[in-house]
Amino acid sequence: MRFEMAAWGKKFFNGAIFILLTGIGCSAQITDVQSPVTVNSAVSQNNPSTVLRDALMAACSQKTTDFSGALTQRNAEAYARMTPAARSTLLKRFVLLDKPGQPNASGDTFTKIVVHCTTPELTTEMQIGKAEVRENLAYVPLTVKDAADSSDIDAHSVTMGMVKESGEWKLLSLGLLLLDLPSLETEWDRAEIKSNETAALESMKKLVAAIESYRNTYTRLPDSLTMLGPAASGSVASSKGSSERAGLLDAGLAEGRKEGYAFRYVVVGANNLGAPAKYEIAAIPADYGRGGTISYFRDAEGVLHAGDHKGAVGSAADPVIK
After folding, report:
1. Residue 112 shares a structural domain with residue 73
2. Closest to 140 (Cα-Cα) out of 160, 168, 165, 156
3. Closest to 14 in 3D by CA, of 258, 192, 188
4. Residue 269 domain boundaries
5. Contacts of 282 (CB under 8 A, 6+ apart)
6. Which one, of 80, 76, 71, 93, lies nearest residue 162 by Cα?
7. Average pLDDT, stretch 244-268?
8. Within this chain, do residues 13 and 113 fall inside the same structural domain, yes or no?
9. Per DSSP, which regions of 175-250 are E strands?
10. Residue 10: CB partners within 8 Å, gap ≥ 6?
11. Is 92 found in the same domain as 23?
């Protein structure tokens, strides 16, 4: 995997406020810490290098509460307002991985601290150099690389800015990019809305495919989406499916909720037998305005519609999606 620090900055802080940090005038002695400590310990919070270490470890393991402890009060409040999906995406981008990993750290603040974030596919290595402190600002060198790359060809370096707030060190910037989460909230919401709405359309297609597959197999429509889901673990039908648990959908979609949307399915009329039987499917944003704005509706004739209903169910009167 190739690491692109420029891409990291663009993706992570797109839309952030640019600031010019002052030059480094002096260096302060920092207490040696030989082993990892928790984010909120007194030692950690009085040391910018270990605060950064703990923030990286929290991001790696997706521990949102611990990561929040490394943010300024203003950023922590904005972070708390983010949807769970947006917080998860933020943490994954912070350590350049697509899924949660297992973190570990070694080294000390007199030389350097090394944080590894390990997933089944990749291990990211983050080397934290000795912090240089000037009054209430600190500058911490950070090098990010693929741990398997011994040549360091793809290693990239950046200086992380830290600020002392109420006596504790907090994340301030990535290079010349200020970490300003409140200004990014709207952009994060827009990005998540677009992602969720695209995923909702794909889920609608999966639901139709699963329902039609069920109809072809059992010559009738399922009574509910639950009947399309996986069989209970250990049941006789768990390996091959049955009319009660056909194994045509994953558990989340079979329960009617996935990636910011809720899904409803209803058989139209009293007859659910054979080819003439009809049904409708609706997809509604679970958190209107933050997780999605468009309601999708698949009518009894198989036509897909979309419209903004402020979080309510759509209808066949909505514009048709081609």
Report:
1. yes
2. 160
3. 188
4. 188-307
5. 263, 264, 295, 296, 297, 298, 313, 314
6. 71
7. 93
8. yes
9. 177-178
10. none
11. yes
CA gap 179, 11 in Å, rounded: 13
57-71, 183-197, 293-307, range with the lowest pLDDT: 183-197
Return d(Cα 147, Cα 8) in angstroms, integer: 17
In a domain, 321, yes or no: no
Residue in 146, 168, 184 with CA at minimum distance from that of residue 5 = 146
Residue 322 lies in a domain: no
Cα→Cα distances 74→18, 29, 176, Å: 17, 29, 19
Kindly report the three-state secondary structure assignment for every residue of 119-154. Answer: CCCCEEEEEECCCEEECCEEEEEEEEEECCCCCCCC
* 170: β partners: 163
Residues whose CB falls within 8 Å of the CB of residue 278, separated by 6 or more in sequence, listed in order: 267, 268, 269, 300, 301
Per-residue pLDDT reduced to its tens digit, 3-61: 443 344 444 433 333 222 222 223 333 233 333 333 344 445 578 999 999 999 999 99
Total domains in the fold of the chain: 2
In a domain, 273, yes or no: yes
Q: How many of the other CB atoms lie within 10 Å of CB of 67?
A: 25
Alpha-carbon distance 224 to 210, whole Å?
12
The pTM of the full predicted model, rounded to 2 decimals, is: 0.56
Residue 276 lies in a domain: yes
Q: Within this chain, do residues 147 and 196 fall inside the same structural domain, yes or no?
A: no
Q: Are 5 and 157 in contact (CB under 8 A)?
A: yes
The predicted pLDDT at position 149 comes to 83
